[in-house]
Specification:
This protein is an alpha/beta fold and 199 residues long. The protein has a single domain (2-197), classed as ATPase, nucleotide binding domain (Nucleotidyltransferase, domain 5, 2-Layer Sandwich). The protein has six helices and eight strands, in the order E-E-E-H-E-H-E-H-E-E-E-H-H-H. The chain has helices at residues 35-49, 69-86, 95-102, 139-149, 162-169, 185-197, and strands at 2-7, 12-19, 22-30, 57-63, 90-93, 109-114, 118-124, 130-138. The strands form two sheets. It has a five-stranded mixed β-sheet with strand order 3-2-1-4-5, with helices on both faces. Strands 6-7-8 form a three-stranded antiparallel β-sheet. The radius of gyration is 17 Å and the shape is globular.
């Protein structure tokens, strides 16, 4: 059984193929603003190198955000299209879960993904359960948040452990491909602010 992993939420494209739960091969490519040019050739190369045809993929999981608006949409669209056309199970994990799971920290973990104006974030328990909600804070808000909550030492690196990812993803329920959607934390925050202004 072959499982495909797709992640395009940020600067890097992360792809992986697993065979019967064991990591078979990966591709990681930095392609800022060029994911749409690079992902399909990279996926084709990954399959070809491992003598696989796309219809041999038996399941798929992908990162559905938060992150780059266009990047997240690209990876999710490819993943759900493959799941639908191949009629295979699909699961999703968030980009913040991905880095939490990949970390070896044995304490509460603050996962952040930076962009030009601020960062997405989430606080996780040592066993990768989300505490509260995901957030987006601009740079000054984030600095205040870190200082007020004394969390500087809890920030984990944005590294990917493909083996841990698979184990975590398989604990998730499969989803109807039509219901797989990107997560846009910035939009949620914008709506919250709009509601506050109308009170």
């Amino acid at each position: 059984m072959y499982t495909l992993f797709i992640d395009t939420h940020n600067i890097d494209i992360n792809l992986a193929i697993y065979k019967d739960g064991d990591l078979l091969d990966t591709r990681v490519k930095s392609s800022t603003l060029h994911h749409s040019d690079n992902i399909m050739p990279l996926l084709s190369e990954l399959l070809k190198t491992n003598n696989l045809k796309v219809n041999e993929i038996n399941s798929i999981f992908c990162v559905n955000g938060p992150g780059s608006f266009t990047g997240v949409r690209l990876g999710v669209t490819i993943a759900k299209t493959l799941a639908y056309t191949l009629n295979i199970p699909i699961r999703t994990i968030t980009s913040l879960e991905m880095f939490s799971v990949s970390s070896n920290s044995d304490k509460e973990k603050l996962v952040i993904i930076k962009d030009l104006k601020g960062c997405f974030g989430g606080l996780f328990t040592s066993d990768n359960k989300l505490i509260g909600e995901y957030f987006y804070k601009n740079n000054s808000e984030f600095d205040e948040y870190i200082e007020a909550n004394d969390l500087k030492e809890n920030i984990v690196e944005n590294k990917v452990d493909f083996n841990k990812l698979y184990e975590f993803a398989m604990t998730k329920e499969t989803i109807n491909p039509h219901k797989v959607n990107p997560i846009y934390i910035k939009v949620i925050e914008a709506l919250k602010n709009d509601k506050k202004s109308n009170i």
